[in-house]
Specification:
218 residues, mainly alpha
Length: 218
């Protein structure tokens, strides 16, 4: 019989994995809503990756319960392989975001440049800036803050700093959270290993009992 503490520890990490999956899934879906700066920070593809990660983690947590029910160890071996795949997915997503943050000024220059003039004007009015690196770089004239070239020069306020400041704050929180999912995966992996070890001991004693005619130890 497995100890209550071991089962409780395993259940705790499995619930945490389920929570991580739900968090990733819900945030990715909610952030698809219209939000000027957040839409600039994350593309539809980025949010799709977050949705896929959430589904993977949620599916693993549910499969874990199913694989735990049989008393055999082979289902738990399958579970640990799934957890290793989860770990790879987590590292891929978190590291990709982290690497992107290393060149934010350059990366968001390209993102800003891909926006249409109407969106650029909204960004400029929201952030009180004109152009990206300077008053002539990717600037769109119109709106209240940057109606023309003269206003852009007088304003002497460019979008690179406020854009990167917002994006950096959000991206740092996201990749730190995703990296944190690794602790949950490791905890569930180790808990599963402990259960496997206990079940192997039970199987060994069962075989010894069978050889002794089912009499057990004296």
């Amino acid at each position: 019989m497995l100890s209550n503490r071991l089962i409780a520890a395993w259940a705790f990490f499995d619930l945490c994995l389920m929570g991580a999956g739900v968090l990733s899934l819900v945030v990715s879906l909610v952030w698809k809503e219209d939000n000027l700066l957040r839409n600039l920070t994350f593309s539809t593809f980025n949010l799709a990756i977050g949705t896929i990660l959430g589904i993977i983690l949620l599916a693993t947590s549910l499969l874990a319960v199913i694989l735990l029910i049989p008393r055999a160890t082979k289902p738990l071996v399958i579970l640990n392989w799934l957890l290793l795949l989860d770990a790879v997915a987590i590292l891929f997503v978190a590291t990709s975001i982290w690497i992107y943050t290393l060149h934010e000024r350059k990366n968001y220059h390209a993102v800003f440049g891909r926006q249409n003039d109407a969106t650029k004007i909204l960004i400029q009015d929201t952030l009180q800036c004109c152009g990206y690196f300077n008053a002539t770089d990717e600037v769109a004239f119109g709106g209240s803050f940057c109606p023309n070239q003269a206003a852009a020069i007088v304003a002497n306020s460019f979008c690179v700093n406020p854009t990167v400041k917002f994006a950096d704050s959000v991206l740092n929180n996201v990749f730190s959270t995703v990296y944190g999912f690794m602790a949950i995966v490791i905890g569930l992996f180790l808990s599963t290993m402990c259960i496997m070890k206990k079940r192997q001991e039970f199987e060994r004693f069962d075989k010894i009992d069978a050889k002794r005619g089912g009499r057990g130890f004296v």
